[in-house]
Amino acid sequence: MFTGLIEEVGKISAINKKDDGLKIKVECNKILDDIKLGDSVAVNGVCLTVVNIDKNSLDFEVSNETIKRSNFKFLKINEYVNLERAMTPSSRLGGHIVQGHVDTTGEITSITNLGKHTNIKIRFPSEYDYLVIEKGSIAIDGISLTINYINENVIDLNIIPHTWENTNLKYRKVGDIVNIEFDILGKYVAKMLNLGKQKEDKLKNLLENW
């Protein structure tokens, strides 16, 4: 479990293709402090397990399912990635609940400098529009952000200076593909409402055919 508050921006230093996915090496410093083999780290919002620890890097294995659902299929050497260690029981939940289970990807359609702040618009697949609400939470490349506005299947995000300077957003450009994880609470509510509707329809059919 994560908060979406990025601890460090790391750099991809190696990508090795395997039959069952990828093995990647990420250069980092800050998050190495108390890391152990088997720990979970969110890399661009994807929950991965540490399989090797070096002096200034961590190794992770990425499954084919993760590659299919995320922007890891476009990963390149020297690319900057957002890093966050898993929450501890005493951590403050400063962002929102982020599982590290990416739902889909989106495309950056515009980046506008607004002085101190930056506006970013991201197009996402329209089949997920029921999970997106204005002023709701969303994780973009693992960053906990608030949705300002929605125009059909394009979300409008305001990036404060701290987030811009301490994440990989400052390296992003129009056309880049980013990982998206929708709010888990919204997903549960949508599921329950759908189940309720299904049961209601089933009961209605039973009564009509009584």
From TrEMBL:
InterPro entries: ATP_synth_asu-like_sf, Lumazine-bd, Lumazine-bd_dom, Riboflavin_synthase-like_b-brl. Coiled coil: none annotated. Residues 1-96, 97-193 form the Lumazine-binding domain. It is an enzyme of class 2 (transferase). Pathway: Cofactor biosynthesis; riboflavin biosynthesis; riboflavin from 2-hydroxy-3-oxobutyl phosphate and 5-amino-6-(D-ribitylamino)uracil: step 2/2. Lumazine-binding repeats lie at residues 1-96, 97-193. Keywords: Repeat, Riboflavin biosynthesis, Transferase. It catalyses: 2 6,7-dimethyl-8-(1-D-ribityl)lumazine + H(+) = 5-amino-6-(D-ribitylamino)uracil + riboflavin. Homotrimer. This is Riboflavin synthase.
